[in-house]
Amino acid sequence: ALPARVRIHEVGPRDGLQNEKTAVPTAVKAEFIRRLAAAGLSTVEATSFVHPKWVPQLADAEELFPLLHGLPVRLPVLVPNERGLDRALALGAREVAVFASATESFARANLNRTVDEALAMFEPVVIRAIEAGLKVRGYLSMCFGDPWEGAVPVGQVVRVTKALADMGCDELSLGDTIGVATPGHVQRLLTELDGAGVPVSRLAVHFHDTYGQALSNTLAALRHGVTTVDASAGGLGGCPYAKSATGNLATEDLVWMLDGLGIETGVDLAALTATSVWMAEQLGRPSPSRTVRALSHK
Length: 298
Ligand code: HMG
Ligand code: MG
Fold this sequence. Notes:
single chain, alpha/beta, nine-stranded parallel beta sheet, two-stranded antiparallel ribbon, 11 strands, about 45% helix, binds 3-hydroxy-3-methylglutaryl-coenzyme A, binds magnesium ion, lyase
């Protein structure tokens, strides 16, 4: 059985723009987020409060976030540590996300920590965020394959997911950072997480489309009961600290499939596509999304 409704967690302004080579002006980012909200996306991940040397593309978080004041949508932001949380709280953020890795190689590359050191770094962040009444998401990267380590054992993923859940993260987003997952693997991981007592209602999926499997993987997750799906408008994105990570699942491709299945998202596909066409003009290159290309072809 498929769900009647899916919540799309839009990551374009964060996961998408963190990987752009050209510097996107802060005002353009704010306009992008406003247009995404107007297209009906109820959650738009806005930016990251990480070290500006690690992700220079998002170094304007302090300038950007106040421009979004009053937008009637959820605006989560990434925070790796207490310094990041302090910055987010100072600006009135109501939702934060920490981001762990299932593999040691990526924990080192992305966070300069071992897996367990990173979890220890997140713990006070999650505790303080919950005390402050915030919603907290826990990302888990490299859930299927890792560019340095190859296939990632399911047990390793389950251990770190459980650690984030036990820490108090409301939602756990399972990331296929380099886009190597296939539907059977998705099914196996979700089944193991059930067995480990992590409720499917707390899970989200975060697929990248490197091998063209993101939609198939999404469908496998929906059949398993997942109802929160991460996607990036126009298919922007990747991860600066994972070689071979290409674009995220494009939000338009996802909405095309969900519309066809009669699954409600609240998203206006025409308005969303127009937003990605506009953003592609700002970036000076066409959107990689098949749906954007098909719908904007004159
Ligand atoms: P580090 O070098 O180990 O930092 O980096 P540190 O803790 O040793 O601190 C060094 C200095 O940085 C200190 O300053 C800190 O104050 C400062 P000093 O005292 O030397 O002057 N600092 C900060 N400044 C501003 N904001 C902060 C902050 N933290 C420390 N938050 C660190 C460790 C975690 C900071 C670094 O590795 C980092 O920022 N990493 C972020 C990497 C990132 O953002 N990656 C992309 C997001 S993850 C992703 O895209 C995957 C995902 O989409 C899911 C998927 O697809 O898999 C989520
Ligand atoms: Mg990602």
